[in-house]
Amino acid sequence: MDATPRRMPATGLLLVTAGVLATIGSVILGDAFDWPASLDHRAAEALPAFAANATAIRLGFYLNLLSSLALVPVAIAFSAALGRTSTAVRAVTVFGVAGALAQLLGWVRWPLVVPGLADAYLAAAPGTPERAAVGASYDLINAYAGGALGEHLGWLLQGVWAVGTGVLLLRSTFLPRWLGAVGAATAVVWLPFTAASGFTGSHVGTVATIGTLTYTVWYVWLGLVGVILLARRQRA
């Protein structure tokens, strides 16, 4: 008997949890912070908006952070579930873990660094060098941690993992092959659009909307994979 399915209930639960956390976090941020459009805002607009709803915004970003964190053991578990130790499987696993960690580095600035910047920005008088310095610090951190790490590196690495996982699932037997095809095809669509959105620094417009929608569909796919794994455990 294949030992692989015995590892799957925890993986399924993590996949469902990641999807639920990301969904709730995104809804909270959309309502409290006009996210993701607020990612385009400069310090003069973003920091007062953050301070006005800091508790809800921090909660939303913590949930997204935990969602990305949950994908680290998922990437490792998929490698074990495939039952092979080929170079391709190992490479896909590395991309999955690295992508999740890069996204974590992007998310973590919001609940831990930005609150202090928001307080310092509002404490400084308008037009003073102090306020300008805080604003410049926010813009720099937003560009580096958000644009460079979370979006460019994080989405690129996660995209490679998403496509690679879908392709590997096509060659596996523990999940329906059509499921792997859907996952790979969805990732192939969202990866260039989200990468373009991060590269241009624009989270509104046609390109960003297509990227966001297809990325959301891919997250739904992840949740579906999790539900199937949990359902198989229940039938076992």
UniProtKB/TrEMBL annotation:
Q: Which organism is it from?
A: Luedemannella flava
Spell out the InterPro entries in the cross-references: DUF4386
What is the protein's given name? DUF4386 domain-containing protein
Q: Where are the transmembrane segments?
A: 12-30, 61-82, 89-108, 153-171, 178-200, 212-231
| Domain of life (superkingdom) | Bacteria
- Give UniProt keywords alphabetically: Membrane, Transmembrane, Transmembrane helix
